[in-house]
Structure formats: C-alpha cells, structure tokens
Design a protein that fits this description.
Blueprint: H1 4-16, H2 28-41, H3 46-54, H4 57-61, H5 77-86, H6 91-110, H7 114-117, H8 120-128, H9 135-141, H10 147-159, H11 174-180
Helix pairs in contact: 2-3, 2-10, 3-6, 3-11, 5-6, 6-9, 6-10
Length: about 180
C-alpha cells in the first residue's frame, strides 16, 4: 500500500499532468517523467530522482493558465513546490526543487554559452525569475549544500522536453518517492 502522500502526488499528476509544460511541446507529466528517468539513468539517489520527478509540482498546484510564463507571470512554482514537499520529504528531495530555478540563473552566470542552449520559453521565464545571477548571488548560491544537486537537476530539466521520447510510467518512480519521505 502506497503512503497517502505518494497517492496524492499520483492523483495530482493524473488530474493536471496532461496540461502543457509552458511553451514546450511536452505535457507536465511527460516533462516530469523524462527528468526523473534521466536522474535514474545517471544512478542518482532516490531523493534526487524524486526531486527530478517533482521539481515542477508547483505548476500543478496553482490555478494559472498553462501559458502564464508566456504572459510574463512568474508563478513561483519552485516555492510552491518547496512548500508542498517540505512537510513530508527529506531535505535532499526538497532543496533541489526549491533551487532549480536559481540553478538556471547560476548556470547563465557561470557557464559560457549556457544561456544560448535554453529554449525560448526558458529564456523568457529567466527574465522574470531574476535574470543572470550577480557575483554576490553566485557566492551565496554555492553556500547551499544542495546547490550541486540543483545544478544537475537543472541540466536534466533542460533536456526533458522531447515530444518523441517514450518514458516509463510514473509508477516506476513510486519506490524512490516512498524512500524519500521523512
């Protein structure tokens, strides 16, 4: 029997997972599954696999339209996700979710050419998410013990937008979710 929180997460994806992922050509569920599968293929910890699956859960928790970011609205999904996950999940599963937007800003500041690799919707959202980090912000970000996990998650996030990729079912990741609970 699955933990009630795991059941609630599966229900959220069942109810809202078919909505489109911003301006991308995949659904929220497809994006989450592709990201989690990349984590699994890279032998990530259960907590990082869970964070990869749930990094955009905040998009499933608000009532904004799918194209909110196209309209210049920052839904602050990373903070909604953090708030939702904090009560039930280990910090190693929550912090990368909270930090994955900041990781995009960080990579734009620290990795030459990274900005050019972003999809157009991701470039648009970058602007209202704070833009490229300053040196002071970079130094502060690097002090978080989970910043490297957030950066790795961000890279998988950037890759997990392939409309032709067939991903495993969400049930594939329930063991990782369950082991990431407090």
């Amino acid at each position: 029997m699955l933990h009630p929180v795991t059941q609630q997460i599966l229900s959220l994806f069942e109810k809202h997972g078919s909505s489109m992922y911003g301006g991308e050509a995949v659904t929220q569920l497809d994006h989450a599954l592709q990201c989690a599968e990349l984590a699994r293929q890279h032998n990530a910890t259960d907590e990082l696999i869970t964070a990869s699956l749930l990094h955009d859960i905040g998009h499933l928790l608000h009532d904004l339209p799918d194209d909110a970011s196209d309209k210049g609205i920052d839904d602050m999904h990373e903070l909604l996700g953090e708030s939702y996950l904090t009560e039930h999940f280990k910090l190693a599963a929550v912090e990368p979710v909270k930090l994955h937007v900041q990781a995009k800003r960080y990579l734009c500041a620290t990795e030459s050419g990274y900005l050019e690799t972003l999809s157009e919707p991701s470039k648009i959202s970058l602007e209202f998410q704070g833009g490229v980090m300053s040196e002071t912000e970079v130094a502060a970000f690097e002090k978080n013990e989970f910043y490297q996990d957030a950066v790795v998650l961000r890279r998988w996030d950037d890759l997990a937008k392939d409309p032709n990729l067939v991903s495993p079912s969400i049930e594939t990741f329930t063991n990782a979710i369950e082991s990431s609970l407090k």
